[in-house]
């Protein structure tokens, strides 16, 4: 019985790791939609939009060197999985007055995969 339980745990752990890697790969693929305006990683710089390193836990409108709208600076948003997933459905509905022009991502799984990809980057652009 213990041996069977141990094998089941190993299989579950392996399949969870595979699912996570798949989600990150799907998130990286989804991020290609963001590349015209945003970057992540060690070499990331502000472009048309701000760099997205260290997004989790960061207050909206606070990346140094990026010219945010007052709407973003005063939104009161601290980025988390929930706020990001709500925002990315329709950015202009979540933050009226934002200059982000993006149709949004309506698919729930794609939003989750994109968040998983983004949250792995710390404020310096290194993967956590």
Helix and strand content put the structural class at: mainly alpha
Beta-strand portion reads: under 5%
Helix percentage range: 40-55%
Q: How widely separated are the two ends?
A: 37 Å
Count of beta strands: 0
Number of helices: 5
Largest sheet: none
What do you see in this structure?
With 128 residues, this protein is mostly helical. The chain has helices at residues 2-31, 70-73, 81-87, 91-94, 108-119. The longest helix has 30 residues, at 2-31.
List the helices and strands and how they pair.
Elements: H1 2-31, H2 70-73, H3 81-87, H4 91-94, H5 108-119
Q: Could you list some keywords that capture this structure?
A:
5 helices, 45% helix, globular, mainly alpha, 128 residues
Quick structural gist:
Helix 1 (2-31) crosses helix 5. The chain is globular and about 35 Å long. By secondary structure, it is mainly α.
């Amino acid at each position: 019985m213990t041996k069977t339980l141990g094998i089941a745990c190993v299989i579950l752990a392996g399949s969870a790791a595979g699912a996570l890697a798949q989600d990150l790969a799907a998130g990286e693929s989804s991020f290609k939609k963001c590349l015209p305006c945003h970057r992540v990683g060690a070499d990331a710089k502000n472009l048309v939009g701000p760099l997205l390193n260290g997004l989790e836990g960061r207050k909206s409108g606070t990346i140094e060197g990026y010219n945010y709208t007052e709407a973003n600076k005063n939104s009161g948003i601290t980025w988390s999985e929930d706020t990001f997933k709500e925002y990315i459905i329709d950015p202009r509905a979540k933050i009226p007055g934002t200059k982000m022009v993006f149709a949004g991502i309506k698919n729930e799984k794609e939003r989750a995969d994109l968040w998983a990809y983004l949250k792995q980057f710390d404020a310096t652009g290194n993967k956590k």
